[in-house]
From TrEMBL, chain A:
FAD-binding PCMH-type domain boundaries: 1-221
Highest taxon of source: Bacteria
InterPro entries recorded: CO_DH_flav_C, CO_DH_flav_C_dom_sf, Diverse_Substr_Oxidored, FAD-bd_PCMH, FAD-bd_PCMH-like_sf, FAD-bd_PCMH_sub1, FAD-bd_PCMH_sub2, Mopterin_DH_FAD-bd
UniProt keyword annotations, A-Z: Oxidoreductase
Statement: the UniProt record of this protein carries the keyword Oxidoreductase: yes
Protein name: Xanthine dehydrogenase YagS FAD-binding subunit
Lineage: Bacteria, Bacillati, Actinomycetota, Actinomycetes, Pseudonocardiales
From TrEMBL, chain B:
Oxidoreductase listed as a keyword: yes
UniProt-listed Gene3D superfamilies: Aldehyde oxidase/xanthine dehydrogenase, a/b hammerhead (3.90.1170.50), Aldehyde oxidase/xanthine dehydrogenase, molybdopterin binding domain (3.30.365.10)
Residues in Aldehyde oxidase/xanthine dehydrogenase a/b hammerhead domain copies: 19-126
UniProtKB keywords: Molybdenum, Oxidoreductase
Name recorded for this polypeptide: Xanthine dehydrogenase, molybdenum binding subunit apoprotein
GO terms, molecular function: iron ion binding; oxidoreductase activity
Gene source species: Lentzea xinjiangensis
Pfam family, one: Ald_Xan_dh_C
Length: 324, 724
């Protein structure tokens, strides 16, 4: 493991200032992903800024909705009564993530910034454009069962692994970040970047910026929301395909709907086309099938992941059936 | 006193293990030891052309970087060392993840970072790592350890051509890795020409044989110590290069050296279950009697080793079939050498038991009935009657408990909510080996017993069963018995591989303990100070630490008093060689398949096994629970992925190499045993068992999925995408 410095900070401003003037610095909260990456030599920060002491762990219900501190632990959010009542998809996505031990440690901000599970990214012996820009992407022609069918490029087809981010995308959440220039808000739909030619740049965070909170608006769709995660074993595993659906139904009529997907895109994937196929229409097998087809219209499956095109449509149908 | 052998005796080492008091190999304090970390080849085929260690040597704490130029020339050892070459003796690279340098430092972290800083240049060629990409067609390798790779009985082709019913199918399974939770580890300490190894090994004596041969030393010069293992599953049966190289580094540096392999390194350095394909053709009568089996399997071989480890013993001898032709073929690939992995015969058995299920549907015969009709009463090779085989009892016991008679003989017939429910079954069987074993039992002046032998407890309960046997044979409480094993300096005993431990050691432990008992009784009846003085030895019973006259129960003495008065311990040894053989059983499985999503859950399992005498019901059940869980992993998820272009293992960790978690384990597993001592066994009637209870599980799951859905999947693992 590369030797690294370590500073525990007590104040958000101090955290950001220290990060801005320390080369190779990284924030660490739960450490459930970063420490593994460091042990494997995939992440090699020179200095860790421990932000666990910052006062950013609260989950509060406000008239506008939900405010989740960046340091709230996954377990705390998943078990929060208001979250379960008003934003069930959020609780379900969190409980479908990782293991109880990891959820006790891992923070909301860290969850959004976890790195892909692509085996080539996590193996320093393999080329990887995300880890070493310009070194190549073996996944495109190699083993890509777990990779994206949407949003990829020749440089990278890795998926983003967060279940939480998929749920937040279906909830129109906003990420609050703080940097040296102050605080700004980024809609979750604008937070992640597709790989294009620069897969090592995964989000819009600027150097030394820290996620301080996630805000989730209150809505009729949020109240009727669910998460379905399909994976290769019963638990403690990332999604092969996942769906977050939030609907506002009047009878069978879809007044409004949000659909987001994991496991199929290079970023947490929202499908306005699929939503449009449902919005204003009755929720029927036909309209659901239309939505599924709209979702995968531009899919570019590879050698090992073609099944995802079919599976995600079935998962969508399954979840909407449960929401009806 | 009630006999302990056969009962559900709790593990005598359980408390030490769960409290952390048990010291595993890497826990042994060795003052002054350097920590080692390997630099592994990043290419699969080619040679090392340059090694620049300057950055590593400049890293704090790094003491040395050793390469092929620095190590002594070593002798490539024979069995159980596989590969036929030792790394770091020259520049050749035969597979990804082959050691090319060793970094030694004060801490593990420094050694690991040092290894990351070593720059290695290669001349590399395009590797071929999966069977589909093989450069050359498959071939019949030479016999492996005198076992032929081609077996014929009768005239299989003619019999097949004339068969009333024929079935042909191809099955495959992916590469798998053992993944014991305790990583492989070696600590090497030289004292002149004498070497001590703290090793996580399934065979302390085998390790001694291999390592002493590599250094050209007599076996007695090497001592191997392995008191506990955190799992081995066959990975720690053979001796691998890291053990020899760690000892070589310690010799070069004249300091103790400790190496702990990382999880990822275990995917190229310690063997695997080879990628496997199987082509089966079966001929039968209309009433289901097998008339011919023709099987050709193809296994992934390495560039340097052509041994085939996944043999088809059940195809050859489980069922009565007069005509047979089995060929074990292989293809040379640029992968690390494969090896034995728990229940090697599972690999082929999946095909056989799936094919029988397919035949049962083809014929309209219940799959259990089909197996009964082909039950082998006689050894298929020698023609001798198989005495002590109770497989038909297993069928009856488990079928009854499972409720198999209620099975509907149609696919897709049962739906519960969103899931189709299916039932499947398969026969289970595995060979077990037996190795000569000597045990010593000593009764001390404190009346307590010590059993000593160079076997190992790989987590299966060896300490406990030894203690049970000694307690029963002496007639002392189990708390007065200590077992000392896992040290090559102890009396020689067999390896803990091939389901051989209990089958090999039990007889010698029992006989040594009985001899020690007899010696103590002799002391008592000859001792004027004993109340038993003058009695005939045959008139003395032993129970709960006491020696009692059978007719006059007031005349009694104790082990402690008798041996205490004698003033020195009583020690006896015994040597026993058991015979190899088979264990049998059956597994019934209920599986549920989601109608729309194809996800599979195993919800109920019932097994019955014929393993001769059950030595400890609790640890025997533990073997079944582990076997069923392994079978679920084998059937539904485990899968090592090679990148076909760069030759690397893509999922060398427990995050992406999926093994079952608790939520995948069936809520109900019922484990039944026939429990009849095998008269042919010198191990108190016990047979080897550990590998049997996996063997049928993958096929039973696949057969249940077929019953549920009508979908036949012949390629393992059966992931969700194959059932859409």
């Amino acid at each position: 493991m590369k030797p690294f410095g370590y500073t525990a900070v007590r104040d958000t401003g101090e955290a950001v200032r220290l990060a801005s003037r320390t080369p190779d610095a990284a924030f660490v909260a739960g450490g459930t992903d970063l420490l593994n990456l460091m042990k494997d030599g995939v992440a090699r920060p020179g200095h860790l800024i421990d932000v666990n002491g910052l006062d950013l762990a609260e989950v509060t219900e406000t008239p506008a909705g939900l405010r989740i501190g960046g340091l709230a632990r996954m377990r705390a959010v998943a078990g929060h009564a208001a979250v379960r009542r008003g934003w069930p998809v959020l609780a379900e996505a969190l409980l479908a993530s990782a293991s109880p031990q990891v959820r006790n440690m891992a923070s909301i901000g860290g969850n959004l910034l976890q790195r892909t599970r692509c085996g080539y990214f996590r193996d320093t012996g393999s080329p990887c454009n995300k880890r070493v820009p310009g070194s190549g992407c073996p996944a495109v022609e190699g083993w890509n069962r777990g990779h994206a069918v949407l949003g990829g490029s020749d440089a990278c087809i890795a998926t983003h692994p967060s279940d939480l981010a998929v749920a937040l995308l279906a909830l129109d959440a906003v990420v609050r970040v703080r940097g040296t220039a102050g605080e700004r808000k980024v809609p979750i739909g604008d937070f992640y970047l597709r790989p294009g030619a620069t897969p090592h740049v995964e989000n819009v965070l600027r150097p030394a910026e820290l996620i301080t909170a996630v805000e989730v608006p209150r809505s009729a769709t949020a109240r009727r929301s669910r998460y379905l995660k399909l994976r290769d074993r019963a638990t403690f595993e990332f999604a092969v395909v996942s769906v977050a659906a939030a609907v506002d139904l009047r009878g069978r009529r879809v007044r409004d709907v949000r659909l987001a997907f994991g496991g199929i895109g290079t970023t947490p994937w929202r499908s306005p086309e699929a939503e449009a196929a449902l919005r204003g229409n009755d929720l029927t097998a036909e309209s659901v099938a239309r939505a599924g087809r709209a979702l995968v219209r531009d899919a570019e499956p590879r050698h090992d992941n073609e099944f995802k095109v079919e599976l995600v449509q079935r998962a969508l149908a399954e979840l909407l059936e449960e929401l009806r | 006193m009630t006999e302990l052998v056969g009962r559900s005796v709790a593990r005598v080492d359980g408390r030490a293990k769960v409290t952390g008091a048990a010291r595993y190999a890497a826990d042994q304090p060795v003052p002054g030891a350097l920590q080692a970390f390997f630099v592994l080849s990043t290419v699969a085929r080619g040679e090392v052309v340059s090694i620049d260690a300057s950055a590593a040597l400049a890293h704090p704490g790094v003491v040395a970087v050793l390469t092929h130029r620095d190590l002594p020339r070593l002798t490539v050892p024979a069995f159980p060392y596989f590969r036929r070459f030792l790394p770091m003796q020259d520049t050749a690279v035969h597979h990804v993840g082959q050691p090319v340098a060793i970094v030694l430092a004060t801490t593990v972290e420094q050694a690991q970072e040092g290894a990351a800083l070593v720059a290695v240049g290669y001349r590399a060629a395009q590797p071929r790592v999966v069977i589909e990409d093989a450069r050359e067609p498959s071939y019949l390798p030479p016999p492996f350890r005198n076992l032929p790779n081609e077996i014929r009985r009768g005239d299989a082709e003619t019999a097949l051509a004339g068969a009333e019913v024929r079935l042909e199918a191809r099955y495959s399974s992916a590469t798998r890795h053992h993944n014991p939770i305790e990583p492989h580890t070696t600590t090497a300490q030289w004292d002149g020409d004498r070497l001590t190894l703290h090793e996580s090994a399934q065979g302390v004596l085998a390790t001694r044989t291999v390592v002493s041969a590599a250094f050209g030393l007599p076996p007695e010069a090497v001592r191997v110590v392995a008191p506990y293992l955190g799992g081995g599953f066959g990975a720690k049966g053979p001796v691998w290069p890291h053990t020899v190289l760690t000892a070589a580094a310690a010799r070069v540096l004249r300091r103790p050296v400790r190496l702990v392999l990382s999880r990822a390194q275990m995917y190229t350095l310690t063997g695997h279950r080879a990628e496997y394909r199987q082509h089966l053709r079966i001929g039968a009568t209309r009433t289901g009697e097998l008339t011919s089996i023709i099987e050709t399997s193809t296994a992934q071989l390495s560039a340097t080793e052509e041994s085939v480890f996944n043999r088809s013993d059940s195809t050859v001898e489980l069922y009565a079939c007069p005509n047979l032709h089995v060929r074990y073929e292989g293809v040379r690939l640029d992968v690390a050498t494969s090896s034995y992995m728990r229940s090697p015969e599972t690999t082929s058995h999946f095909g056989l038991e799936t094919a029988l299920d397919e035949l049962s549907w083809q014929l309209g015969i219940d799959p259990l009935e089909l197996r009964r009709r082909n039950h082998a009463e006689f050894d298929q090779e020698t023609g001798e009657r198989l005495t002590g085989k109770h497989l038909l009892d297993c069928y009856a016991l488990a079928a009854d408990r499972f409720g198999w008679a209620a099975r509907l003989p149609r696919t897709g017939a049962t739906k519960d909510g969103d899931e189709y429910v299916g039932w499947g079954m398969a026969t289970e069987t595995h060979t077990f080996n037996a190795m000569p074993s000597t045990a010593s039992v000593t009764v001390g002046v404190d009346g307590k017993a010590l059993a000593q032998l160079a076997t190992q407890d790989i987590g299966t309960g060896t300490y406990t069963v030894i203690s049970q046997i000694v307690a029963d044979a002496l007639g002392v409480p189990i708390t007065d018995v200590q077992a000392q094993i896992g040290d090559s300096a102890l009396p020689p005993a067999g390896m803990s591989v091939a389901s051989a431990t209990i089958a090999s050691i039990s007889g010698s432990v029992d006989q040594a303990a009985r001899a020690a008992r007899a010696a103590v009784v002799d002391l008592a009846v000859a001792d004027p100070s004993s109340a038993l003085f003058g009695a005939a030895a045959s008139e003395v019973e032993t129970s709960n630490g006491h020696l009692v006259h059978v007719r006059d129960r007031q005349r009694r003495d104790t082990y402690r008093a008798v041996v205490g008065r004698a003033g020195r311990p009583v020690q006896r040894t015994a040597t026993v060689l058991n015979k190899a053989g088979h264990s049998y059983g059956v597994v019934f499985v209920e599986a549920r398949v989601h109608a729309r999503l194809g996800s599979v859950r195993v919800t109920r399992v019932v097994t019955a096994h014929d393993i001769g005498r059950v030595m400890n019901r609790r640890t025997a059940r533990g073997q079944v629970l582990g076997g069923v869980t392994w079978g679920i992993g084998h059937a539904l998820m485990e899968h090592t992925v090679f990148d076909r272009n760069i030759g690397r293992v893509v999922n060398p960790n427990l995050s992406t190499y999926l093994v079952p978690v608790n939520a995948d384990a069936p809520p109900v597993v019922e484990t039944l045993f026939v429990d009849k001592p095998d008269p042919a066994s010198t191990a108190m009637g016990a047979r080897g068992f550990g590998e049997t209870p996996i063997t049928g599980v993958p096929a039973a799951i696949g057969n249940a999925i077929y019953h549920a859905t009508g979908r036949r999947v012949r390629d393992l693992p059966i992931t969700q995408d194959k059932l859409l």
